[in-house]
Amino acid sequence: MGTVQAVLLAAGMGTRLGRPLPKPLTRLSDGRTIMQQQMDNLRAAFGDDHRVLVVVGFKHDIVMESFPDVAYAYNESYDQTNTNRSLLKALRITTPGQGVLWMNGDVVFDPAILGALEPSIEADRTAVCVNTAATADEEVKYTVDARGLVRELSKSVGAAALGEAIGINYVAGRDKALLVEHLAACEDQDYFERGLETAISVGGLEVVPVDITAHFAVEVDFPDDLDRANARG
Question: What end-to-end distance do the CA atoms of the chain give, in Å?
Answer without folding.
Answer: 31
